[in-house]
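hiii so um. not sure if this is the right channel but i have a protein structure encoded as tokens and i wanna go backwards to a sequence. like what aa goes where. can anyone help
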């Protein structure tokens, strides 16, 4: 199937870049072909967004909300097609796409349709004796956004919808290996009545199109989700023109199990949270840090449950674990696992690829890892969980924080005081208690440290896409203001 890879000024655009194929990672078969966008296409898309900005940014909240509500309706009506595209291009299990990715995205669109009408600010009031002050919250302008391949639809929605609700115009570059659902989303937005130029898509390589977009002089904000290394390059490109940035980067989430935890719940939670999306999730549990009293039973329980995970065809509703995104990425994951025993790790289960077409890798548990080891410190981004023991609560929280990342974490305990301490002292943008992974549209997502800054989802995300303007009006009608005395010494 040959597709148009870009959408500029309200229409599909034929681009002049090199030929590219979208590969189903479960079968290694080609599901779509297209020509890549080029930096020239970026220029056209940004110019289109800039031209469309005045009309969209001055539309009333109800006008913007009406279009976005229609988009939510259309996305829901096209859920089956979105699921099919998402499963085919990413290899994620159909249950995950059907029950999480697509309905979560539709809910997020619906949330921002409503939120567009509820922008908050300080009350208009007399904060000084002689003036009335008010706050205007205005669209920041043209937003450049770059999204990853692990959750193509969700990440597009997380970035684009709050920007549109705030009155911004957007140019998005999806990952070139997974552009299908982003292109469907922009077509549905156009069908919903979004004016041409407000939402543009350029599908190209990060090395040229991504760089051109992040460093474009005519954008006002650059927002990116992806690895920490690439995020730093994006921030550097944006800094050339002093553009604001919002980054959601990598993670190495601790899964802290205290000695009073419900062991069965922690075991099930660890397997689910480490294997979601084949571990290709920056919030996935990757470092289980377990109290010595529960350590052996936890390792045995997780190893046993991982052994029951069904790896196979992602279109089969009985499949639990799909493939990794590409053979190259599988090789990277496998290499890290293979080096683990040399650094003291013990492979309890997994550590090999099954005899299947595509880039599959078995669920893997590595126990007794050293704090300095590669698998403990570096992001693996695969179906791999490492385990270490801790001696007391201070040691557990110390180990949880012993990372440059700070996106997400969880603590497992029946003790409310331990739970509260963990929520206070673990450095992460999200701390779950007795669970790990759930997200909701009403609450923010974003990290600290090497995991980036700024928020996606929720009303908090509007802060990324709005500027705050203070308007101060004299209420005295006096020619000579009281403060003038600091300038004029004599009359």
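sure thing!! here u go:
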């Amino acid at each position: 199937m040959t597709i148009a890879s870009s959408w500029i000024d309200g229409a599909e655009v034929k681009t002049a870049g090199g030929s590219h194929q979208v590969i189903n990672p479960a079968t290694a078969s080609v599901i779509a072909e297209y020509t890549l966008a080029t930096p020239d296409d970026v220029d056209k898309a940004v110019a289109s967004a800039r031209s469309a900005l005045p009309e969209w940014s001055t539309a009333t909240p109800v006008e913007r909300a009406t279009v976005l509500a229609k988009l939510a309706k259309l996305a829901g009506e096209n859920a089956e097609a979105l699921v099919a595209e998402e499963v085919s291009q990413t290899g994620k299990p159909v249950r995950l796409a059907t029950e999480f990715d697509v309905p979560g995205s539709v809910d997020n669109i619906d949330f921002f349709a409503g939120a567009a009408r509820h922008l908050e600010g300080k009350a208009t009031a007399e904060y000084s004796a002689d003036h009335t002050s008010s706050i205007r919250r205005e669209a920041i302008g043209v937003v450049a956004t770059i999204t990853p391949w692990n959750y193509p639809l969700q990440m597009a929605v997380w970035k684009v919808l709050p920007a549109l609700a705030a009155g911004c115009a957007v140019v998005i570059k999806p990952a070139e290996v997974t552009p299908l659902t982003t292109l469907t989303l922009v077509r549905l937005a156009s069908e919903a009545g979004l004016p041409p130029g407000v939402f543009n898509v350029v599908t190209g390589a990060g090395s040229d199109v991504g760089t051109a977009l992040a460093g474009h002089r005519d954008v006002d904000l650059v927002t990116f989700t992806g690895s920490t290394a690439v995020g730093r390059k994006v921030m550097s490109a944006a800094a050339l023109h002093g553009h604001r940035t919002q980054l959601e980067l990598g993670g190495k989430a601790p899964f802290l199990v205290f000695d009073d935890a419900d062991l069965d719940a922690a075991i099930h939670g660890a397997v689910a949270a480490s294997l979601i999306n084949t571990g290709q999730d920056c919030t996935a549990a990757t470092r289980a840090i377990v109290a010595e009293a529960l350590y052996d039973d936890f390792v045995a329980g997780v190893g046993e449950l991982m052994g029951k995970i069904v790896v196979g065809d992602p279109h089969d509703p009985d499949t639990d674990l799909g493939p990794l995104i590409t053979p190259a990425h599988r090789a990277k994951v496998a290499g890290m696992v293979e080096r683990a025993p040399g650094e003291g790790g013990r492979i309890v289960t997994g550590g090999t690829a099954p005899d299947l077409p595509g880039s599959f890798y078995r669920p893997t548990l590595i126990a007794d890892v050293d704090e300095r080891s590669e698998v403990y410190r570096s992001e693996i981004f695969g179906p791999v969980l490492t385990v270490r023991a801790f001696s007391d609560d201070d040691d557990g929280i110390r180990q949880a924080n012993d990372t440059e990342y700070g996106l997400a974490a969880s603590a497992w305990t029946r003790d409310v005081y331990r739970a509260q301490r963990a929520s206070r002292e673990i450095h992460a943008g999200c701390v779950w208690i007795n669970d790990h992974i759930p997200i909701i549209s009403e609450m923010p997502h974003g990290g600290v440290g090497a995991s980036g800054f700024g928020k996606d989802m929720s009303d908090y995300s509007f802060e990324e896409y709005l500027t705050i303007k203070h308007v101060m009006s004299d209420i005295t009608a006096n020619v000579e203001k009281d403060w003038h005395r600091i300038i004029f010494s004599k009359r």
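oh and The chain has a mean pLDDT of 96.
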